[in-house]
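Bench notes, afternoon.
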Amino acid sequence: MNVLVQGAGALGGYFGGRMLEAGLDVSFFLREKRAAQLRKEGLKINSPEGNFETADVTIYTSVEEVKNIDLVILAVKGYHLDQVIPQVTAIVRQTGAFVLPLLNGVEQLDRLQEAVGSEKVLGGFASIMATLNEQGHVVHTSGNSAVKFGALHDGQVEICEQLEEVNRLVNTNLLREEDIKKHMWKKYIFITSFSGITSAMQLPAGFVVDNDASFTTARRVVYEMKLLAEMEGVAITDQEVEHMADKLKRFPKEATSSMHQDMRKGLPLEVEHLHGGAFRLAEKHGVTIPVIETLYGILKPYENGKIDGQV
């Protein structure tokens, strides 16, 4: 199986690197700036799961260069989706590849299915705490990592079986799920709460759970997201929701969300893709989500990164 990873930030760099480490045929499609950095520094991963580095990385920066690809792993931020859809469309058209998007949220499925066809877009997401350092090396800070994926169309069973086989080779987890859409929603519910509260407070998890008012806010986000999931035909039990809320309490006190990390660095935020997406679903179904709407309003000014004049 020939895999093209589109994007080599912490997410794409980590999982693409783990597949390279296992000897799989993996290449990267990147913007020029990141491509130049990767050519200079190589791909380096620092991780509790084991370090890895290689200078032997195949990189493409133009669609015309891409040939013989079976699977595109889309590992970009939500705010880059509009930019990459034309590239993904062209790559699928000339290679016939399937697409596995690892973006948070759910809106990307409809967008990509409209662009390349519903039979080409798998469901999936990633779970990892990682960032890039100044040299562009991947720094994985948690003790585990996983990509969960699954078929959304009968024609995707074979490619899912092939990817499932890869799991035994790689130093991470590539896990196939039968009800992948429900798993995507569970991730969306949790990350909307966790990223929203840590970014709005500009504090890590320990401060959220140590203050009843802060934890109550995070918990209410989870229940508002549960309502949206049900409106979209995805059943989430109260027990599952409580488990998501209590997950905050099990994090190390210094743990925080990738959105909060981006905010501290003055980088763009996925607020429109996550909280904005939830707001659009609420409008679609005629329901109110006041806590998410409040977090959306607080974070929206930081959407494009550091605000001029702010420390």
